[in-house]
Amino acid sequence: MILMKDIIREGTPTLRATAKKVTFPASQEEQNLGLEMMEFLENSQDEKIAEKYHLRAGVGLAAPQVNVSKRMAAVLVPDNQGNIVFKEILYNPRILRESVKRAALNEGEGCLSVDRDVAGLVVRTDRITLEFFDADGTRHEVKLRDYPAIVVQHEIDHLNGTLFYDHIDSKSPFKIPENTVIIE
Ligand SMILES: CNC(=O)c1cccc(C)c1Nc1nc(N2CCN(c3ccccc3Cl)CC2)nc(N2CSC[C@H]2C(=O)NC)n1
Ligand code: NI
User: Fold this and answer.
1) How far does the centroid of ligand 2 lie from the alpha carbon of residue 81, in Å?
2) Residues near 3 by Cβ (< 8 Å), separated by ≥ 6?
3) For a tag site, which of 16, 31, 159, 165 has the least CB within 10 Å?
4) Is the ipTM of this complex over 0.90?
5) Residues labelled catalytic
């Protein structure tokens, strides 16, 4: 199982590299990694398991974060009632369309690879059309908005070596640009 010791932190080169596309069908190793990343998210969201293994909770994890520079990520997004609203292992995810409307988490963003609080709004696109492939190479296209859309954008950033605080306006980190919805 993936533990916090397996997650690389700032300063490790892979975190700033551009990850390579996966070819299909994904190898057994790539399929296992996808499942292990999803298992990590499930474990991290389970109070007892997270406490037992000292896991930080997350709703997304990208392969570069476990030092594998491949374009794959797991996302497991619950709503405030704990019902899963988006659960996927994404291979070669790509944003096809972006709304004009922007969105940001009211509390800012955290990252399992960043061991510090970096305050400030991370302004992203509110609604996206996402293309991704599954392990068999089957193409999927889904529309996402608000929290799930933010999580997917955060994880795709990891595939391009971008970290959430790269988006924070250091001069006025809490300025809310127009046409931006704040997500509680
Ligand atoms: C600096 N302020 C903050 O971090 C921050 C502070 C407050 C609120 C939010 C909303 C913040 N922001 C933020 N909170 C999260 N979690 C909330 C708690 N949750 C969780 C926790 C326990 C059980 C189950 C679950 Cl589900 C896990 C996920 N996750 C992300 N991100 C940014 S997009 C990728 C995603 C990620 O997985 N990061 C590790 N941001
Ligand atoms: Ni992250």
Assistant:
1) 23
2) 53, 54, 55
3) 16
4) yes
5) 155
